[in-house]
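Lecture 7, part B: from sequences to assemblies.

Below are the input chains for today's worked example.
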Amino acid sequence: MTWLWSNLDLVGELSLVHLALSVPAIILSFVISVPIGWLAHRYRWSRGVLLTLCGLLYAIPSLALLIALPVFTGLSVRSPVNLVVALTLYGIAVIVRTAADAFDAIDRDVRQSATAVGYSAFGRFRAAELPLAGPVLLSGLRVVIVSTVSLATIGAVIGVPSLGSLFTDGFQRGIQAEIATGIVATILLALLLDLLAVLAGRLLMPWTRAGAARRSSSQAPVVEEVLP
Amino acid sequence: MNLVADGIAWILDPANWQGAGSIPERIGQHLLLSLVVLLIASAIALPAGAVIGHTGRGKQFVVMVSGGLRALPTLGVLTLFGLWLGIGLAAPVISLVILAVPPLLAGAYAGFEAVDRRTIDAARAMGMREREIVGGVELPLGLPIIVGGVRSAALQIIATATLAAYVADVGLGRPIFQGLKTRDYGEMLGGSILVILLALLVDGAFALAQRLVVPAGVRATRTRELRSRPPRPRTVVGRPIHEGNRQ
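Predicted structure of the full complex, as structure tokens:
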């Protein structure tokens, strides 16, 4: 604890740096993934190709990806942008799959009704499909938030400062408290962003709360029942 | 594309293929470490997941463990155990086991849970004992999902075993850290390429295994997505579409 009190400034500063690395990656991956996920949902061929690509991307070990990325981007290995790009790619690999599932799960009747009342393809996407897919997209986003914040610490071993620097520094100098502080701070940061995402979800999708309450009382929740 | 040439040159350099710390030795260490960890973690997590999936008790526990441990930074766990246990293999093995348990637990739980309750009721009605139901009905039907969990865990282990070279002299992460220290990009990239190939090979092997373990009876009647579902329960919007004879 004494270590923490005397280094509070450092932890605060690294937390901000950590946020600056992970938040852009989380937002970018969400914004990029939703259209890709919709495309994967829309056509059979694109589904196979896109989901396979995402699976392969997700299989690549993070440290190796961080080292190999500069070959394609021309950035330096130690550049923070390189880390953000890598985190974004992992985020995309997770959300595209979730987004495809989310759009798949929308009732066909709803889609047909939206077409029947005159929505164009894009209008239907914006007004009917996106809000209905919202809760599942949010669950995918929450997974990405937690894993991105945790993954960003790996940048420390290649020289990109973040809360992970507390791990490398603590290891080299033999300070257990520093590493423990880093772990706790990373988890707290992830929980904080997760909470913000949940709150944003409630603001943007006010119907999900009422729906959840009603469903639990009257009928069994339709969870994991998509498998035929 | 000069960078790639440097990496490939490092991999092909005969000097890197013999003596202590040669490429084959590193690959062997990496695979052996991953295998040992996978076996230990499976011995812990698969029975636990099977019990929870079969009885339906402790579902919250699985969700908590698999969700909570995702937030745990791997590097922090590695360095903390590295300090506690000193240089050597104990630290990476223990940290890797901790990190491999959640996907295995979630996979085993999801595999047993995904089996249609009516199938289990039918088995019970035919007079099968609880143990026979678990081994003869739930296990074969849930196996593709369970193997999916093992697949996620194996990939997680291979990735983190690379990072483990930071705290111990082991595996394919070694050339990466060596290259970082001496600013030799060819060595870093060479090591990275080998790790990526290894991960993709293992992923492919498990993908194949997932197809092979689908029971013949199931394969004949339906095709479906085999990858393990995410540990968090997924809410489905609306009712699933009923069409034709599909349920």
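Note for the exam: Residues 108 and 114 of chain A are 10 Å apart (CA to CA). Keep this in mind when comparing with the next example.
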